[in-house]
Amino acid sequence: MNISHENQYIIEAINIKKEFLVKVKKDNIIISEEKILRAIDGIGVKIKPGETLGLVGESGCGKTTAAKLLLGLYKPNEGKVKFKGENISEFKGKKLKDFRRKAQMIFQDPYESLNPRFKIKEILMEPLRIHKIGSNYKERYDLAETVLYEVGLKPPKTYLERYPHEMSGGQRQRVSIARALILNPSLLIADEPVSMLDVSIRAGIMNLLTKMIKERNLASICISHDISLIRYLTDYTAVMYLGKIVEKAPTEKLIEKRYHPYTDALLEAVPNPDPDYKINLTKIKGEAPNPVNIPSGCRFHPRCVKCMDICKEKQPQEIEIEKGHYVLCHLYSR
């Protein structure tokens, strides 16, 4: 995934951190105090055109927060997010608007992400109007018709005059994909793109995403807790736990040989069609800690069956085990 020329990356996160001040109850009484929630704690990713990165982990591990940082919706407390080599925190005015056009997101819930009072043609044409693409109504209408055809809603004219409630969940998600693609972005982030859909139509949406990413040469990120989805869609995978990337590698390499105990536990929990396969669910203990009170040392140590004394005292450093395969664990410290 790494290459020598920085400007060949579409998006690059360099040691980004994000903290929030949250109020927590003290001794179960009404009086509350403010504490720091470390949502993202020093992660780094790099994505080239045509590549798809998977972010996987339990709910609350920071996947969506990381996506919002990469889109510029949050500003990092530390570190930098670069788009085509430029720091997005410095974007203002026209430059920021151009970045908004080039970085698009597909949301998890197609029932909530589409305006119910807009017809499909208005949902697709509004971003064109905002970014002044197309000189008149007919040109924008034609672009909306073209992109609907590309995402598999045929004939497109029969869908353009509908409202979102007149469409199925799969059709709505195709509209969401069309809305993201109509601005011809360079970066596409899909946050749990099929989790709200029936199993019977998930494959169609996944095939569509794969096709669009390759045809348009997009740098893309797929966020999910579903390893099977990540394996199908992504070239490279980063496993997140409590705001940190604990392991990252090419997807197939990560599935074939995982080093971090958390990654191992995640993959062991995936259903296996072999009736003779014995699932081992004892490789992880308890629940994830509250991110407001992160454990000392390695943040995974309270749940790790391979925990050592050093794990409780010192944070591990990222180590390259094999070429392109990185892990954050004391088991492999040199």
Oligomer: single chain
**The CATH top-level class label:** Alpha Beta
**Biggest sheet character:** 8 strands, mixed
Mean pLDDT value:
89
Report the portion of residues in β strands.
Answer: 25-35%
Judged by helices, strands and strand pairing, the structural class is alpha/beta
Query: Could you say what the CATH architecture is?
Result: 3-Layer(aba) Sandwich
Whole-number total of structural domains: 1
Corresponding CATH superfamily: P-loop containing nucleotide triphosphate hydrolases
What gross morphology would you assign? Answer: globular
Bin the helical content: 25-40%
Pick out the low-confidence regions: 1-6
What would you report as the Rg, rounded to the nearest angstrom? 21 Å
CATH topology type? Rossmann fold
Strand order of the largest sheet: 6-7-8-3-9-10-12-11
Query: What's the N-to-C terminus distance?
Result: 24 Å
Order of helices and strands: EEEHEEHEHHHHEHEHEEHHHEE
Number of helical segments with 4 or more residues: 11
The total strand number stands at 12
List keywords for this structure.
334 residues, alpha/beta, 11 helices
Sum this structure up briefly.
The protein has 334 residues and is of the alpha/beta class. Helices cover 31% and strands 25% of the residues. It has a single domain (6-117, 163-332), classed as P-loop containing nucleotide triphosphate hydrolases (Rossmann fold, 3-Layer(aba) Sandwich), CATH 3.40.50.
